[in-house]
Structures are given as C-alpha cells and as structure tokens.
Amino acid sequence: MKKVLVIGGGGREHAIVDALSRSPQVGKIYCAPGNAGISAQAECVAIKDTDVEGLKDFALANGIDLAVVGPEVALAAGVVDAFKNAGLRIFGPSKAAATIEASKDFAKQLMAKYDIPTAAFETFEDYDAALEYVKKGSFPVVLKYDGLAAGKGVVIPETLEEAEETLKDMLLDDKFGKGRVVVEEFLTGPEFSFMCFVDGKDVYPMTLSQDHKRAYEGDKGPNTGGMGAYSPVPIITDEDLEFSLEHVMKPTAAAMVAEGCPFTGVLYGGLMKTPQGPKVIEFNCRFGDPETEVVLPRLETDIYDIFSAVADNTPMPEIKWSEKVTMGFVMASKGYPGDYEKGYEIEIPHSITAPRHCGERSDVAIYHMGTSLKDGKYYTSGGRVLMVVGFGDNLQEAHDKALAAVESIKCENLFYRRDIGWRVL
Ligand code: AMP
Ligand code: GLY
Questions:
Q1: Which residue in 350, 346, 380 sits closest to 35, CA to CA?
Q2: Which CATH number, 3.30.360.10, 3.40.50.20, 1.10.600.10, 3.40.640.10, labels domain 2-92?
Q3: Does ligand 1 lie within 6 Å of residue 330's CB atom?
Q4: How far is Cα of residue 106 from the mean position of the Cα atoms in its chain?
Q5: Four-CA torsion 51, 369, 213, 288, nearest 10 degrees
Q6: Which residues pair with 377 in a beta bridge?
Q7: DSSP per-residue codes, 172-186
Q8: Could you report the per-residue pLDDT of 379-418, keeping only the tens digit for each?
Q9: Element (H, E) at 256
Q10: What is the DSSP string of 80-124?
C-alpha cells in the first residue's frame, strides 16, 4: 500500500485527499499542513507548505511513495526541484515551469512568441509610462500585478482616476509587493477553467469547470480566489474545447519544452470565450481552487495512477468522468477578500460532514478551505472557509442540493453567493 503526502491545506487539497482516499492502492495519506476537515481523511502534519526542507525531510523519514503539491507558493518555492534532487517522486511542475503562473509577464511573452490567443498587452515598471499608456487606451482597462497575489492582483478600473489610483498602489507604493504591471486589453465573454494533466509534451484534458471570481452576486465586487464553481460547462461547445486543446493547451506545453522548462503537473488554462473564440486570461501551474472540488469528485479513474504516470513519465491510463454533475458554493468570512475576523464557530449538520464521491451514499460533499477544530467543534480560520458541493443528474439538481446544504450550515460570520451557475440555470 502506498504512502502519499499532499502539500497544502485548503479546499483543493481536501478534494485531492478525498480523491486519493478512493484509490485502492493508497494506504496512508499525510497532508502538510492540512486543515480541520482534511484531518478526518488524512494525518495532518504541522509543516508549512513553503518549508521545502521540512517537507523533504518528512518525506524521506516517512518513506513517502509520492508527494502531490496543491498551492502555487510551494511550487514557486521550488518544492518539486528539491524532492526530485533527493530522489523522491512528486507530482507538480519545477520552479522554472511554475513561472507560467508566478509571472504574468512570462506567460504573456510566451503566448506572444508562440501565437497563443490572448488579450493585447504591455508590461511596465515605471509609473509614468504605465499611466501614459493607459491614458491612450480605452476603459475599462485591465491592470495585473506581475507576481503571485492569490487571485487578487487584478484590478479592472472603469475610469482614469481609478486606474491612476491602482497604478500608484502597484508601482509607487508596492502594495502588492515589489513588481511590474501588465496592462491588458479588456475582453468580454464567459470564462471557463480548462485544467489538463501534462507530462512534458503530452496533454490530457480534464472535464471543464467554471469559477465565479467576483465576491458578490451579479458578478459584482472585488476579484477573489473564487466563490463557487460547477462542472461540466454546457455553454462551452465541443468545438470550443477542441480549439482550446489544439490552439492553447498543446502549443503551450510544447512552448514550455522549447523554452527549456517542460511542464509536468496540472496546467490550468483560465480561458474566456470571446466573440473571436477562446482566449487565455491566465495560466496557473496547479489545480484551481474551488474548481478542483467540483472536478475531482467526477473523476472515475484511480488518481494515484494519473499522478504516477505524470511523475514517472509512463503511459497515462484512460481518464473517465462520471455522468453526475457538480455545483459548489463557497462560504467565506464576512469582509473577504479584504480584512476579516477568524474564530467563529461553524455548526455543520452531521449528515453532510464527510466528503463523498459522486453517487456514493450522499448527494453533498463538504470541502474545508479554512477551518480549525477545537473540542470537537469547527471554527473559521481563513477567508474562504467551506466549499459545499452538490451532485445531481443535472446542474439545477446539483445547485439545489448544494444550496440546501449551505443554508443548513450555521455560522454568524459567513457569506456566500446564491447565484452560482446563473449562466446555465
Ligand atoms: P486573472 O488573475 O488573470 O485570472 O484575472 C482575474 C479575473 O480578472 C479574471 O478571471 C477575469 O474575470 C478578469 N480579467 C482578467 N483579465 C481580463 C481581460 N483581459 N479582460 C477582461 N477581464 C479580465
Ligand atoms: N479559482 C481560480 C484559481 O484557482 O486560480
């Protein structure tokens, strides 16, 4: 029986642990650092996801057969390189390949060089030059901080005053950190998340999902890490999918090989179906959160075999998806994505406390994103706190089941969007 170490401690990692726990080959799962919900299915170990040496020493000392990395910060810290150098098996991209997410500018230059469809752009270090460029363009305009910002480094000003303010924050006051700004053309159309397993040159698509990035109903308010998701995405046609695979994901994997940093792991294409066809909004170097919580419950293939095929560069098994569909609601701390308080008790009805595979016993799975456990009670411990996923024969049914479960959860400091899936219901 295999021992697996999952690195990270959010809803995404909970869904990865849940998927691994369905593998008949996996006997023991550790999660570092994990969270209160994950501790019901894995042994949580108190090592930070960016403590590369600590993680490596743990894996060596405990005979870990395979490590799986969730968060981009761990990848950008070089955890994959360190594990491989120590002879350990690990699923995820190298630090060099993770730059496709860590630097917006790297991703944009790569797309420009290899003719991968994306919004027109320029990158700036200098405030005055950036402002000059913005003044010449139209509004809204898209301003992206060139570094990791947990989904919050993108601002879309409607007016020049707002743009000036944001450029000041990003370039003069370094409110996001010390970095450059990518100024981008504003595109329109529905977005979708296209995650693919990639083992260097070969690309194996996952089923599609759609996130809801804005904090409030009606797609209003600030950008967040994501407030809800569903899978599959009926408004994206087979043609769109084929185009995205052939003209975006495969050429990007090939470009990474050509650039000397082959990508292994999950390549996440954040795409928009514009009137001119699908274009790239962003790339991520890992599973999406909350997309993973609606995609992996639909996976019918043994995920340990998939991770192994990528980690070892051996043949990929056929990847199969359930006919059941999923929709999930994020419950977040009031104030998120800005400041929020922690430590509020959460009461979750017993009937929905454990995650379930699609079709198994329950119609609802609850993935913990930011919770802690004390004396048998759950408390909020993050901005995003729970992802509550419903399973159904259609998206309306999945929506209704998830929403009913969300409404049965009691906590005075949580909010959620009730309109998840509005584009398709
Ligand atoms: P990103 O972190 O690059 O995914 O951007 C966060 C969100 O900002 C995206 O999910 C989009 O909703 C929005 N966004 C980013 N770039 C553009 C663009 N060029 N045009 C319109 N919306 C965008
Ligand atoms: N949900 C978007 C992301 O994971 O980046």
A1: 380
A2: 3.40.50.20
A3: no
A4: 19
A5: 60
A6: 374
A7: IS-BTBS--EEEE--
A8: 999 999 999 999 999 999 999 999 999 999 999 999 999 9
A9: helix 250-258
A10: HHHHHHTT--EES--HHHHHHHH-HHHHHHHHHHTT--B--EEEE
Q: Is 22 in the pocket of ligand 1 (CB under 6 A)?
A: no
Written as six digits, the tokens of 151 are: 């989904």
User: Which protein residue's CA is at the shortest distance from atom 5 of ligand 2?
Assistant: 288
Instruction: State how far Cα 409 lies from the chain centre.
Output: 24
Mutate to test the pocket of ligand 1, among 152, 282, 291 (most ligand atoms within 8 A of CB): 282
| DSSP state string for 364-375 | EEEEESSEEEET
Backbone torsions φ then ψ of 388, nearest 5 degrees: -105, 115
Please say if the pLDDT value at position 361 is more than 70: no
Fold classification of 325-415 (topology level): Glycinamide Ribonucleotide Synthetase; Chain A, domain 4 (3.90.600)
Q: Is the pTM for the entire model greater than 0.85?
A: yes
Amino acid at 221: G
Classify each residue of 18-34 as buried b or exposed e, where b means 16 or more C-beta atoms within 10 Å of its C-beta. bbbbbbeebeebbbbbb
AA identity, residue 265: G
CATH 3.40.50.2300 is held by the domain 120-185: no
- 23: phi then psi, degrees, rounded to nearest 5: -80, 125
